[in-house]
């Protein structure tokens, strides 16, 4: 292990940035491979980019597929001279420190309205206060946004989330599920974005190694949760009206990401690569004024 | 004139809220009427709504027209117990005062990609500090967002803007044009939203009556500037590729309105009527990753 990536944290475990990087890049690879297995037509295209202050990323985007209308799986590892306030609400004393941040972030917008949109993200922040030990924390999660929800899918999705958490502590599924519901919420609509999943931030309650194990559990669990739903719903017939409803509901996704999502706003305002940040936005979206679904319809149920 | 709507400002002219209200409601009416003349199929539908703290609005939206794919022309007059900080960057001492705000705001998204999108807004704020004279200021403007710009249209649009301003002062066209270019700017894209027009805020440099005359000049000028462009471009043939480019470029409109527009963000965060605030969003939008137009094409020119 190299000196600059192997340091002792306040919890007395090695902060092994290189190991996280290796893991995250392999995770990006394996998720893209698995998604391509589900997609008969389109393939991921890769763009490497450089961050102005140091580091960069590897964006992979698949567009216009038969099954996957748009899927983006991004890896990035950026280094900065001064941690911005928006990156650490809970640690104001670290603002201005040199830092590095690395992560994988993905959003999948399927074509079939019976397949849910999904988002997942895993990241590590390390801040380097002068003359002190580095401070690290993980963040991430995975969440699901159906247009035509199937109760069985929602239960299975949350079962995987539960199974990911169970080996680590009896309580964290409930805790991270609640955080997810609180975070993916549109106050101006009084709606959650989707049916939730897991969301965690500022994760350093265990040793670095144990937190990394949790991150790996989420990373491994993601495909185990999402792929069965893809396989079940990808070939269902859908109507033009269902497609229109899907495009309308995608507007909520845009509203959340552009108005509330801390990652998106931080990225845009800190000079990140716009096309990589906004790869999360859906391919086709519509806004209709004051849309009211028919009473007792599946749209109303949502 | 009623006592509560006729007060003396620090510039010694009557603050005649009732007169502004009458004018703005008539302006909403006349703009809707004129737009319907251009639209063979769809008609405006009206929703009246009530604001929680006092007052309310009259939203008028036309959707799915042959010429006008979506047009919203909203009037609102809201009263609040405490002026929010976001409403008055330049007058921090007024934050927390009782206030009222009234205005007309409109956005027109035409179907034909050769017709530009347009936005206009006229508003009056009055703050009522305790034991002091009310403080008032006007704001507003009009701006144009072409997808396939015609130089003649842009020149004619700015000529009307110039003519609106000329009787008031030799310099304000340049001043309000610059403000417009600065305001409708997407830093993350390093792009302006459209080709500009006029933008003014905190307008109280003349007497209340004179400022009101300026607001009326903008209100009257809007149709004089926009309708000729509608008539010139509404029947031009367009290709599927041009339509796709229009939907792609509309994404910039969404990005601006949801990430930067002070009115939209203030509205969403202060509990305004979401459907009226977001009527500005385009009906059909697409995001494509890293779109690069063909060299020397009309898309590249934009």
Q: Globular, elongated, flat, extended or rod-shaped: what is the shape of chain A?
A: globular
Pair with the most extensive interface? A-B, 32 and 32 residues
Widest sheet, order of strands of chain A: 3-4-5-6-7-8-11
Please state roughly what percent of the residues of chain A sit in beta strands, choosing from under 5%, 5-15%, 15-25%, 25-35%, 35-45% or over 45%: 25-35%
How would you classify the quaternary structure? homodimer
Helix proportion of chain A = 25-40%
Number of helices of chain A: 8
Secondary-structure element string of chain A: EEHEEEEEEHHEEEHHHHEH
Number of strands of chain A: 12
Which stretches of chain A are low in confidence, meaning pLDDT under 50 for 5 or more residues running? 1-11
Overall mean pLDDT of chain A: 92
Radius of gyration of chain A: 19 Å
Distance between the termini of chain A: 50 Å
Structural class of chain A: alpha+beta
Largest sheet report of chain A: 7 strands, antiparallel
Describe the structure.
The structure is a homodimer of 302-residue chains. The first copy, chain A, is built from eight helices and twelve strands. By secondary structure, chain A is α+β, with helices and mostly antiparallel strands. Mean pLDDT of chain A is 92; it is low at 1-11. The A-B interface holds A 47, 61, 63, 70, 72, 187-189, 247, 251, 254-255, 258-259, 265, 268-269, 274-275, 277-279, 281-290 and B 47, 61, 63, 70, 72, 187-189, 247, 251, 254-255, 258-259, 265, 268-269, 274-275, 277-279, 281-290. β12 of chain A pairs antiparallel with β12 of chain B.
């Amino acid at each position: 292990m190299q000196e600059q990536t192997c340091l002792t944290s306040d919890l007395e475990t090695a902060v092994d940035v290189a190991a996280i990087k290796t893991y995250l890049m392999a995770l990006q690879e394996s998720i893209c491979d698995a998604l391509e297995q589900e997609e008969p037509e389109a393939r991921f295209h890769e763009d490497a980019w450089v961050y102005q202050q140091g580091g960069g990323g590897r964006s992979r985007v698949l567009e216009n597929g038969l099954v996957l209308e748009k899927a983006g799986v991004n890896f990035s590892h950026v280094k900065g001279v001064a941690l911005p306030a928006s990156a650490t609400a809970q640690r104001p004393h670290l603002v201005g420190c040199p830092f590095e941040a690395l992560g994988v972030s993905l959003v999948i917008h399927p074509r079939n309205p019976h397949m849910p949109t999904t988002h997942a993200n895993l990241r590590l922040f390390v801040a380097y206060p002068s003359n002190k030990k580095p401070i690290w924390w993980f963040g991430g999660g995975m969440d699901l946004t159906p247009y035509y929800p199937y109760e069985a899918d929602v239960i299975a999705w949350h079962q995987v989330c539960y199974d990911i958490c169970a080996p680590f502590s009896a309580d964290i599924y409930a805790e991270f599920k609640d955080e997810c519901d609180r975070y993916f919420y549109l106050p101006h609509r009084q709606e959650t974005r989707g049916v939730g999943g897991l969301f965690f931030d500022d994760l350093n309650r265990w040793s670095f190694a144990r937190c990394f194990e949790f991150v790996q559990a989420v990373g491994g669990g993601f495909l185990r949760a999402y792929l069965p739903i893809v396989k079940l719903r990808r070939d269902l017939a859908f109507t033009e009206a269902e497609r229109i409803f899907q495009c309308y509901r995608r507007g909520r996704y845009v509203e959340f990401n552009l108005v509330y999502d801390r990652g998106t706003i931080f990225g845009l305002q800190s000079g990140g690569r716009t096309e990589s940040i906004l790869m999360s936005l859906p391919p086709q979206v519509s806004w209709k004024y004051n849309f009211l679904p028919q009473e007792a319809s599946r749209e109303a149920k949502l």
